[in-house]
Amino acid sequence: MQLPYNEIYQVLISAAELSFSLLSKTVPFMVIGVVFAEFIVALRVVDKIAYIARPISNFANLRDECGASFMTAFISPTSANSMLASFYNDKLIEKNELFVASMMTSFLAIVMHWRPMLSVLIPSGV
User: Fold this and answer.
1) pTM over 0.85, yes/no
2) Residue 100 to residues 38, 63, 115, Cα–Cα distance (Å)
C-alpha cells in the first residue's frame, strides 16, 4: 500500500521541523564548547592545568598539551577534541600523539555517558 504524496510530504516536513528544533538546541552548546576550548588554548591556561595530568601523559609518553586535553575531557569531550585538533594544527603535537590522546579522551566521553545510568546500575549490581 502506497502513501499519497501529500502524506509523504507532511511526514518529511514534520521530520525536518523536529530535526531543526533539536539541532537548534544542541548546536549552540557545541559551538560554545569549541570557542571555550580555543580561549583556553589562546590564553595559555593549558600550561596551568597540564601539571595535574602530567603523570598520565608521562605514562603514555605524551606531551603536556595532551594531558591538558585529557583533563578538559572531564568537563567537555567536544572541547578536548577541539584542543587536540588545535594542537595538531599548530604543530604542538604529532600525529601519533593525536591518535593516542584522542583515544584517551574518547574513553572519557563514553564514561561521561555512564554517569546518568549509575543510579540504576549500582543498585542492580548489589
Assistant:
1) no
2) 21, 11, 24
